[in-house]
What does this fold into?
Amino acid sequence: FATVASQKQAILQNLNGIVTQLQNPSLYSTEWANRIDINNDNGPIVSCDVKAGDVLTLYPIDRVEFGIHECGRCVDLLHPERFPYPHLRNEKQDLCILSDNDSIRQGWLGNKIPMDRENKGNCAFVPLPSIAPLCAIVATRDIAQGESIQETKIGRKKTLELAMTVGKLYANEIGDLLPYLNEMAYANIPLPKKSVKLLDNFHKINKSYPELRQIHSNPDIYTIPNFLSDEECDRLIEKSRQGIQPCLVKNEQTGEVELDPSRTSTNANIPKREVPSIIEKITDLANCDAEQVEILQVLNYQKGQEFKPHTDGFERATSACGFLDSGRIATVFTYLNDVDNGGKTIFTKLGLDIKPEKGMCVVHFPMNLDMLEDERTEHQGGVAIDEKWILTTWIWKHFKGDFRYDEEFLPSLGDDLI
Ligand SMILES: O=C(O)CCC(=O)C(=O)O
Ligand SMILES: [Fe+2]
It folds into this structure.
């Protein structure tokens, strides 16, 4: 580590060059940093034979996504309240560490790490509390020179074992760099501008859900009549009466949620724990995990109230509702009463009006899987004449990462378990 001191200075002077700087193998011991050819277009290639358990290189942990199955769970492990290992609080056995399946990582290694779709991984990301914000990429089996690295899904016991071993081995050396690495971790690295992409890569719902009807294609919109029974609708309305309050809208400038003249209805937040059978229906239909489901809201529109034209997606990476750097890939709402006059949902750019029918569910896709908004899905809750009740929620691309938004903090709306 003789050369490290002078290089620290260089790194600080050149925060914009972080990617290059951190790719410099001489920053680290040759034992564990020069084994990946990070300049290869197809993803990192191992440049020498590697033994199981060897550290291939380091990786900024805030760029790693923790996931279960196919769902990336992006956790900001730099956050003091959530560090270390908040995900290990999760009781799920199959915790694995993998990259997001269809995005290219914008990490300090500045490179793509291909998703291990077939689970033939040969390395794992190992969180190392002692050297945060870096984690190690560790070989989980022998890797031959020329092979590209692919992440392995490993159980949490194995993750911990690897973290312990690697953490102990390298804590001192890397700890020396910690303040500098931290500074870099928080540096604002401009991401490459998104190129104009075709809106063709959307989340896929469960097409065999009973009575699913497609009422618009490209952009796709589906309905399911009688998705909820009359009884479920009535009980949801009753439950929500206890928590009803004026609707709020996220202010894109400040990030705060606040009263907004574009949304004059009232609503109640329904804790998922109080509506398990509704959640089961939604996850079955939307083909997603319950953790991807945003807060459930019951909206009430009285005469004259409305939700002016809007899209449901948020532009840019967002931390709305605890979903970090994610997006709303589907909207699922269900009318809770029949509405004879007014209150239609109007898709303003599609010439499509939907008249509320008790129990009917509507699904549309505000953003695609590249997290681009589909402006064509702009819609409004038309001005109410008769009273209107609607249950609405949104499916996010990733699991919640910010635990301050945990549903356990939502007040109960009574004992009725629906
Ligand atoms: O009230 C409606 O018809 C639509 C509600 C809506 O668009 C929303 O809550 O995002
Ligand atoms: Fe909406």
Q: What stands out?
A: The CA atoms of residues 93 and 157 lie 9 Å apart. Residues 213-409 form a domain with the Jelly Rolls fold (CATH 2.60.120.620).
